[in-house]
Amino acid sequence: MSVPALSVSDLALAAMLILANAALSLWLSLAIARDIAVAAVRAAVQLLLVGLVLKTVFESSSLPLTLLIAAAMFAAASYEVGSRQERRLAGWWGYGLGAGTTVLATTLVTLFALFTQLQPQPWYAPHTAIPMLGIVLGSVMNGVSQTLSGMTAAVARERNAIEARLALGCDRATALRPLQRRAIRSGLIPIVNQMSAAGLITLPGMMTGQVLAGMDPVEAAKYQILILFLLAGGAGLGAVAAAVLATRRLTDERHRLRLDRLAPASRH
């Protein structure tokens, strides 16, 4: 079984659903018709451009080009992590901490998969490394951004309770541990929900694509299980690292709370 090639008319037919959503928005005065249209056009253009770039990279099988694509993906994800936070850390820490934990967790999990379960030849084969990097990066980015957002907002909101615990003799790790737990839990909820719903409620995208491409459903399920476990590992590693490093940044060696290291609250 082979997947049929899609024509422009096929995509145009599917785009009618987007137009229907926009029409419903206008009819119900939801004020998101323009947003829906712009998002759809952006998605189409971005995905087609990415497809053309990846086609070139896959054909060249070049390590420098693969690393360049990875660097661009990391840069975009790092910006997203920083921009999603209501209370960012001040200065370069606002982007640096999220970027560092995202890159570290994603790189470790991706290399783990490439050198153990997948084993492409060469190890950096772009047709394997880039899709794997992309799917892991998305999960880690969400985990890190939600953890950091929850952590910084909670520290600002619960200042009095934290300083009371510090005044009673708690060290900074103990004083902020309840906040860490809540922030990490919020960062892991999306992947936990994704794993819980997989198979019973939804067929994940990777498994669906492989089944459509003709792979045996059981083998497709095995690959999807592998991916979900990798996503959970990456999100967990990134969330914990982000919470621990944020705790250290928001306190000092004398175990004092340092809210001066938080930027003003975002107004958007």
Description:
- With 268 residues, this protein is mostly helical.
- The protein folds into 2 domains: 1-60, no CATH class; 62-261, no CATH class.
- Helices cover 76% and strands 0% of the residues.
- It contains 9 helices and no strands.
- Helix 3 packs across helix 4 (93-118).
- It is globular and about 70 Å long.
- The termini are far apart.
What topology does this entry show?
Layout (H helix, E strand, L loop, with lengths): L7 H21 L4 H28 L2 H21 L9 H26 L7 H32 L1 H9 L4 H26 L7 H8 L4 H33 L19
Q: What's the short story on this structure?
A:
By secondary structure, the chain is mainly alpha-helical.
Features:
268 residues, mainly alpha, 0% strand
